[in-house]
Amino acid sequence: MVSKRIIPCLDVKDGRTVKGVNFVNLRDAGDPVELAWQYSRQGADELVFLDITATNERRKTMVELVKSVARQVNIPFTIGGGINELSDADVLLNSGADKISINSAAVRNPDLINQLAAAFGKQFVVIAIDTKYVNGKNLVHLNGGRIATDINTEQWIKEVEDRGAGEILLTSMDHDGTKAGFDTHLLKKINQTLSIPLIASGGAGSMQHFADIFLEANVDAALAASVFHYGEILIPDLKRELRKQNIEVRL
């Protein structure tokens, strides 16, 4: 049985880790390199860094941050934000990132997914999707949730899988930062049709929320931010609790 993964997410703005609720009201959560080192020592399986204003402010992802993190941690990490072409991804992967994540750029230029998968291998390509329930439909949102589209989330997930995505990172904007639990219904529905790994994001507030999303939706990984950043849940404690509930995790 493949172990389920626990992934801290570090949203980075102006070189600092930040966290908000429903993608707004951001507050400081610490130095990203220091947090990465701590999570690596605690037993996180992977890390995700999202430069949350890179796309909106039209600037490139922080290469120096990638280099610093690569020197500090010995677990895989994904970097996303402001990746618009192959050369952006090439620089990040050569600087030490293990995977790259694209979101808005994939929607604006879907062929970029095919290009990245062909150039680097699909295992390096994570497609991040921010979804919000609007008028009875789950719709894709861009630029850190600032721009709504009329793209159906489930149809988009199917397309990016067909184009060569290696993994889907799905964030429920409705649940994000609320600590009320993951969007189990949506994640279960989507995971039943996927043949690539699905990472659940948005809503973690307790250890039971992690257990529920693994047991009910059978996702491959669960990602969270504030509960880890502010010490509300410690990764070793979380993994011991998951083991008690017969969920396979790497200790």
Helical content (DSSP H or I, runs of 4+): 25-40%
The computed structural class is: alpha/beta
Order of neighbouring strands in the sheet with most strands: 1-4-5-6-7-10-11-12
- What's the structural domain tally? 1
Secondary-structure topology with pairs:
Blueprint: E1 5-13, E2 16-21, E3 24-30, H1 32-42, E4 47-51, H2 63-72, E5 77-80, H3 86-95, E6 99-102, H4 104-108, H5 111-120, E7 125-134, E8 137-142, E9 147-152, H6 153-163, E10 167-172, H7 184-191, E11 198-201, H8 207-217, E12 221-224, H9 226-229, H10 235-244
Parallel strand pairs: 1-4, 1-12, 4-5, 5-6, 6-7, 7-10, 10-11, 11-12
Antiparallel strand pairs: 1-2, 2-3, 7-8, 8-9
Structure characterization notes:
The protein has 251 residues and is α/β, with parallel strands linked by helices. The chain has one domain: Aldolase class I (TIM Barrel, Alpha-Beta Barrel), CATH 3.20.20. Helices cover 36% and strands 28% of the residues. It is built from ten helices and twelve strands. An eight-stranded parallel β-barrel has the order 1-4-5-6-7-10-11-12, surrounded by five helices. The longest helix is centred in the N-terminal third of the chain and has 11 residues, at 32-42.
Can I get a quick summary?
The protein has helices at about 30-40, 65-70, 85-95, 105-110, 110-120, 155-165, 185-190, 205-215, 225-230, 235-245, and strands at about 5-15, 15-20, 25-30, 45-50, 75-80, 100, 125-135, 135-140, 145-150, 165-170, 200, 220-225.
For this entry, give a set of tags:
TIM Barrel; globular; 251 residues; 8-stranded parallel beta barrel
